[in-house]
Amino acid sequence: MNLAFWTSAKPTAGGLPSDDYYSCLVAAEAASSRKQRYPSAHGSGSGSDDLILPENYAGYLKSYSKPDKVEEPPPPAARGSGGSRANTRGIGAPSPLRERAGLERKRKRDQARQYKSKMRSKVRQMLKKQAHRRLGLWRSRVLDGDRVPIYVSLDGIAYPRGRDAYVTQERDQKALTRMSVSEFGPNSCIVSPRALPYCQQYPPLTPVDLRFWHLPPNIVEAYRLSSGITGLYTWQADCLKTLLDCTLFGFEDQPVSPASHRPLDRPFKCGVYCAPTSGGKSLVAELIMLRRLLFRGLRGVYTLPYVSICQEKLQQLRRVWGDSGQSASLAALRIEAFHSNASVDKEGVIGGWTAGVDVALGTLEKVNGMVNRLVSQADSSTSNVGTVIIDELHMVGDEQRGHILELILLKLMLFATGRVTSASSGELYQLQVVCMSATLPSLDPLKSWLLEADVYTTEFRPVPLEYFVKVGPRLHSGDLDRVVRDIPLLQGDPDRITALIWEVAQEACSVGYDAASNATGVIVFCATKAWCEKTAVHVASTWPGVPWDLDDTMLRGRQQALDILRASPAGLCPTLEKSIPKGVA
User: Fold this and answer.
1) pTM for the full model?
2) Host H or E run for residue 141
3) What fold does the segment set 137-457 form as a domain?
4) DSSP 3-state assignment of 382?
């Protein structure tokens, strides 16, 4: 047996051999004793069974007494005297391949560490030079196809570069100085919006007034013109008091939240509220996001379940918040939608979600990618995201896509509370998540799961909703405690479905033709597509008619709808061809 014992162990601080050196000597002595007890059958003397040590082994031992300079031993002979290959590794020493692989892994780790350190430094420098607000600063926007610099005043009005912009900037700078707000850096956020010049001009207001929440006058006017919103419902004002951070946003300057009485420096603040459909849920979430964006510069992510809703919300927010691309009169906040049909997303979420996007609207799948980037990457596009809105929270129980929404919320909670550290900063991350839904059976499990979220519920409806139950030929009240009336029987309508629809149409006819043609309709929900088609044909065939069915304008409109469908690539559906002439689709 051929053995070669040599080690690369270095001397310790006191000049004494290390533990590996003593292990080597013990192994050498054991091998020597085995050689004396079991002579080799292949040779004797200094043959192939000799213990091979480095030629300058004695000098190598003396080198341990010289810690300043250590001479490495030369590699041993490749083969022993017997011609067999010698083992060139000491006991416990790594092989050359493993050693090179370890060095390569260490080099890559060092490179990754240096890259992250460099990115953290860049983000810190960027944050120092960035204004943590969206009012009283210069920005750039695409207007009429060209990118031009604009100045967004403290009043929320965007001015193209020119004399008016410079005069307004000088006036705003004086106001910011009086408010102790710096031009850039962490102290550049507007902690107390009530000190803004336009808020000083407001008369005493109640919480149901939009101006009470320190919104710029032109945005308040935009809400009135685009959506007809002139104020808040009482439940909306109460919900805002529950969910808004009072200290950080200048509401009553209270040190704790009036609803939860908990400190406001929580890294993760979640609010869940439930209200019936068409009760104004979206407006509450919009105001929370808008205030955090205007006064602190915290960008927002708006999660919506479907592409069609993303497109609708995109147009609505652009009209109100002023990034339509045609005018710079409003605050010119940049809102973009991220979904499969969005043009901004042609390079993917990572390419489209840049630091210039103030509000990102996205489906569940796209927002999940944004959250992954928020957690794992360190760049300017994720450094100041502070508000995430979750619409239709009840979809967390959906069999197909519910797990995606659950993952989004879990990653946000872990990231914000510091269990998952941001790559751009080792500090705790302050994040507010606003969840809303119209159909949540129980809020207690969600409240506990979302780290003791603030919860608000209401049953308010702007339009009263009456419930009735049809049992056989009779119509009962919603609680089944009384019979309202008997449903008339029409020819060919044994289930009295057409009769129910016809009663609503008759009531519309009693208030005049204009009201009926502009604002009246009946929606019938069916369980399946086949059932829907069957019901439409049945109602059309048994429809007794109403006075406006013979109106020339109504008839021309129905014929135009048929012509458009015939010219479409899919053609005209036979069911619609039978039902549309009767006003049923």
Assistant:
1) 0.67
2) strand 137-143
3) Rossmann fold (3.40.50)
4) coil
